[in-house]
Specification:
This protein has 389 residues and is mainly alpha-helical. It is built from 18 helices and no strands.
Length: 389
């Protein structure tokens, strides 16, 4: 039995094997959706892209509920014109490959930790890809940008952050990491110049008179998702929903301001890899917990960030390990109706909302350990923060 267990472990801790399995799984789920003509999100992206290029307004629930910035339509153009059959395959397989590669480009993590990161998120990644969502793109842009910062390629890192932000807002907050790296003012100049270019890029298709109104319409439709209970952000917790919903924007601004203060107040840790990666994980959790339209599979972003935080913790308590498996069960396994009976899923996720509570507690734990806990980690531990869990 031990030999079998060792063989299984060796197989699943091999990046080539995992890539092949994930690629095949992505192909199969895409094929099933295309055969059933259920690639609805792809249709939304495709039709909105066509509208963008002919100067029509792509926004509004009366059309197809499109929630992305005009830059997204430019970047999605190659996929849109591949058609409704080939396009979904290229879109999903490209995003799977980029997500997988992003994990394995991360510096300092062990090969085993990278493999476990993919395995932990593989099911929720497949779920979001079944819906052909943009979530994997947000996740891998966060990670690629971090890796580029760490490898001293700030210009490309900033470009990826801005691309993410101009498509779906989320990623823009990663710019806070600029404080952790040398030549801050030069990098800030890069940010301003690249942001100006990306902001103006939609003028390739939009008339000058419709340019600003297009961005205003984007901002307007984002507000349409404020009060919907099918979402799974902190705002949707029954206990605080009525209290927080009227002041959502203030809560978002307040929490990100508090995080910024905590981050800057720990400036002495900017030179530590575990602090930088842990801060990224906290940010990836924030954009999901405080989003206006978090769905079950949107947690692929938050969970990837959580794992980055988890691996670089020098000391993992029993509580940390319990949260590790609780998040896996409640956020990865339970939402899959082929594994968890729908009545059980509805009870856990919609009635008692254990999934949201679990990740909220986890996220608060991440903040405490990274920003507030007295630092007793000695230098030897800091240098060996990538030991397997």
């Amino acid at each position: 039995m031990k030999k079998i267990a060792d063989a299984v472990g060796t197989f699943f801790l091999n990046r080539r094997n995992l890539f092949i399995l994930g690629f095949v799984l992505t192909f199969v789920i895409t094929l099933l959706e295309v055969l059933r003509e259920k690639q609805f999100n792809f249709f939304t992206f495709q039709l909105s892209t066509f509208d963008f290029w002919v100067g029509e307004d792509p926004y509004g629930v009366e059309k197809y509920d499109f929630l992305y910035g005009p830059l997204f339509s430019i970047l999605f153009t190659p996929f849109a014109y591949l058609g409704k059959t080939v396009g979904p395959f290229v879109w999903n397989l490209f995003n799977f490959s980029a997500y997988f590669c992003a994990i394995f480009t991360l510096p300092r993590l062990t090969e085993a930790q990278k493999c476990k990161t993919y395995l932990y998120t593989a099911l929720i990644l497949a779920t979001t890809q079944m819906s052909m969502q943009f979530n994997p793109v947000v996740a891998y842009l966060f990670v690629f940008a971090f890796t580029l910062f760490e490898k001293n390629h700030p210009l490309w890192a900033i470009l990826l952050i801005l691309i993410s932000g101009f498509c779906k807002i989320y990623g823009i907050f990663e710019l806070a990491l600029l404080l952790c790296y040398p030549k801050f003012w030069r990098n800030l100049l890069y940010t301003v110049l690249l942001a100006a270019v990306l902001f103006l890029l939609p003028l390739v298709a939009l008339p000058l008179s419709g340019f600003i109104p297009h961005y205003m319409r984007w901002a307007e439709v984002l507000g349409l998702h404020v009060d919907q209970f099918q979402f799974y952000a902190l705002f949707n917790l029954h206990l605080v929903h009525d209290l927080l919903t009227p002041i959502m924007t203030y809560v978002q601004m307040g929490t990100i301001t508090i995080l910024a203060i905590l981050f800057v107040s720990n400036y002495r840790k900017f030179g530590r890899f575990d602090f930088r990666l842990g801060s990224l994980g906290i940010l990836m959790g924030w954009v999901i917990l405080f989003s206006l339209s978090t769905e079950k599979h949107t947690y692929v972003i938050a969970l990837l960030g959580y794992l980055l935080w988890y691996w670089v913790q020098a000391r993992k308590t029993t509580f940390d390990k319990v949260l590790f498996w609780a998040n896996f069960i409640l956020l990865v396994v339970v939402p899959v109706d082929l594994i968890c009976p729908p009545p059980v899923m509805r009870f856990l996720c919609d009635t008692v909302q254990l999934n949201i509570w679990c990740f909220t507690i986890t996220w608060l734990r991440m903040i405490y350990v990274t920003f507030l806990k007295p630092d007793r980690t000695d230098q030897k531990e800091v240098q060996t923060l990538t030991e397997p869990a």
